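Narrative progress, year one. The postdoctoral researcher (J.K.) led the effort to move from monomer predictions toward full complexes, under supervision of the PI. The following entry was the first complex the group processed end to end, covering 710 residues in total.
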Amino acid sequence: MAANKQQGSYFGLFLAGATVLCAGFAYFGSGTGKALLALGALGIVGSMLGYMGIKPLEGMTAMKPGSGGMKLVGAGVALLGWLLTLAGIHITDSAGGRIIFALLGIAVSLVGILYILPAAFNKNALWKGESASQRTGMTAAKTTMEHSR
Amino acid sequence: MKKILRNSCLALCVFALVLAIGLMAHAQTAPATAAPAAAPAAAVPTASPADAELKDAAGKAPATADLAKGDPGGTLTGTINDVPAADSKAGVTIPDVANQVGQNKIAVNFVWTLVCGFLVMFMQAGFAMVEAGLCRVKNANHTYMMNFFVYTCGLFAYWILGFAIQMGGAAGNSNLGGLQPLASEHTLSMFGKTWGLFGQSGYFLAGHTYDVGVMVIFLFEMVFMDTALTIVTGACAERWKFATFAVTSVIMGAITYPLFGNWAWGAGWLSQLGTNAGLGKGYCDFAGSGVVHAVGGLTALAVCFIVGPRIGKFNRDGSANPIIGHDISAVLIGCFILAFGWFGFNPGSTLGASANGNLRIGTIAVATMLAGCTGTLGAIIYMWALKGKPDASMSGNGLLAGLVAITAPSGFVSATNACIIGLIAGVLVCISCAFVENVLKVDDPVGAISVHGTNGLWGVLSVGLFADGTSNYGGSWNGVTGSVTGLFYGDASQLAAQLIGISTLIGFVFTLSFVINLALEFFMGHRVSIETEVGGLDIPEMGQLGYPEFVFRPEPAYSGD
């Protein structure tokens, strides 16, 4: 199952919910604003639950479940690097010191993004188990494309 | 009794005469007292020499009969007669002329900003052509439609929420009349300083933000935001579920992009690093290498991790197969459209062409051109020398990389430095594309992560290195007196501010995008089914082929074992 009526309906509900939610933000000081906020949030949650309901019907994807914990660790390490940089602003007053803290923070974030996350996502990557026939097919396709080029 | 009556009539007549004279005098001085509060000295005598000169000029102005004969040389059109007078009986006065000058300045800046915004909006067409051209023909409709629909999703999200978050506290821009309705920034007091977090006015452009200046800044900022959103569609093309793309685009246009946009451009904490922490002029990103391109590129990386590579992109040993796009002509024409639109992107970011040092728009435009030129050169020479061919798609990416990199420093650097920045970007995009594909095993069909992410970060860094301290936009930047100056010109603290911005992009923006899209993966799923992906997304996702009269060569069935 690809794009379908339910998806369209839930997207409409999501947009309507988001609009009402934002109206709630705009008039947050009043009772009406708070009511709109709750109503909008309800619409968004409803659309997400709707999407979750039809997700199993949409067919198997070319993805295998990876390590969920490692994905969050990768994101956490990336965030940690940013917090380290922020700490540097207050720990030292010198430009050189802040540059060092910022570089350290960037390095820590990059470990999360360029090392931990790829490892988490590629651990069970589908291409690691792709069949010989598929690879042969891709080689043939590649040759065709290079000729046409 | 008769005498009393006569004296009373006489007194009444004298009183009436005094009253009449007083009223006449008041009528003559009324225009002067009604002058704008900003110019109290405007209460000039009614018969000043300047007023006499104005009356003289009005007398010499061409009459209606002269104008009716036509003005082929343009020498009669545009005179003192075109200056509106507050009091038609008194004629044009000095306050009238002063008001007209002020309004002309704002009008020039409005028109400049709007026209540049229109140019940036046209970049959407360029992005659509580049991305669709680099994809296979079986996904052409889907890729074009993502580029088309992202405009709508982003615009709507920005109108209901994003603009308020980004620019809700951005009052004070004198180029656009002050933008005083946008004066509500939510702040946090920390370590004795007040830091801006997000704006709070401008939801739905309603209430007091129903204002001419606010509308101009909304349009200009909106098209920038949409540029960031459309970067992601290219990186995730050929396997991204349309529904999830639509929802994530709305969220990005409402929250992710505006939040960083506020921190950099909307009186947020990054822009306050100069005033609050003594770091140069605060985080400086003239036209958005970081705000637009790095945000888009890093979000693209986050979504690409989650959505995974296309079927057949990688072999079992991890080596990558090239999947060639279907229309290189669309790619290169799209690149030209983008380069054209960039003249709105960078020079337009002065938000005006009149006053406050805005005559630097020529320098900015030339820097933009040159960086694109050297970016192309860098990519072509790198590919030609190392791979043997001047690769067309990488040449286009080299042009875009140079333009992306010069976006942040374009307002602060010389032509020579622009060339250096662009050349480095052109080589960097080639290296980054290879790194993303071969080391990270991330499949990015159009190279968006490298073009916009890597080079967006390089652009932000280059401000801290190459800003030469010659720009002068009203004498200060981000509330700090003086000109933006990088490390090579003597200010190391500016480099620190830029690095903090880069760390925020990598550590915060990436993480926020990643977590949001991981949640959407849980609820909706990002990826289309195997059958849809192998057969092409056009029919299952869009219901129509991009090129219905083309004959497809069927691809081998996917076994999935």
